[in-house]
Amino acid sequence: MFKKLLASMGVGSASVDTRLHQHRVSPGSMLTGDVVIRGGEARQEIDELSLFLMTEVEVEAGDTEYRQPQAIQRLALARDFVVGPGDHFAVPFQLLLHPETPVTELPASQGHSAYGQAPLGKGGWGPGQGAAFAPGLSGARVRGRGCRVWVQTGLSIDDGVDASDVDALVVTPTGPISRFLAAVENLGFRLSAVDVERGTLRGSGFQSTIGCYQEIEYRPIAGSRYAGRVKELEVSFVTRYNDTGVLVEVDQRFRRHDSYRSLMMHHQNYQNVDWEGELGRMLG
User: Any idea what the CATH number is for the domain that residue 207 is in?
Assistant: First the structure.
């Protein structure tokens, strides 16, 4: 009885340890792994074992901004089971990552050839194989606080303190996203900030669905074609399984209001499109 009382307070309680088979993924790819459950000092009834795909979003409230975690997906693995003292077993899982999952790592600024020009991954729209990636959107090379994505495991214990585990993911961009960002850089822009905003993104023919969206901000290089005309670009993507919607917010110099332009990238033929030309026509 004493051990059960301690377990109900989290002392000697059951624990979880999530072991991912891969830590480097892309939106729309399959994440696999095992959740290892270890029993504590007493028999415990478990209400639910769940996985959550999480990110951190920027929230604006009046004149203040703050960040808070937000769930992108939830996967219930098991419900209503018992973990006895000393039990040790694993629950395998497969999670198809939502295609709108924010990316945490962007291609290095090395020109067109570094972005998704090699054969594509499974499905024809994965990240370009062999592309060069620069880690850490939260690093010093960009403004903003970058982006975090992680898997959070929850073990909901009846009449007890819930157990949890957190595992970070590196999310690399899909082929279409890499290709479009290459076009942005090829026109003389460089990455300056990355954020994930709470809310819904809408463009012509597409709309985000996960309650948040990523903004990737670029500024023109001094002396480039757009340096005297464009202050900054904010690029956002809504990836679906057959196409990717792109929304570009243009902050032009000498204009009081930003303008928005959108286009669609079809995964079957996006490599055959002159995206530098498309973006140039959008910017005028």
Answer: 2.60.40.640
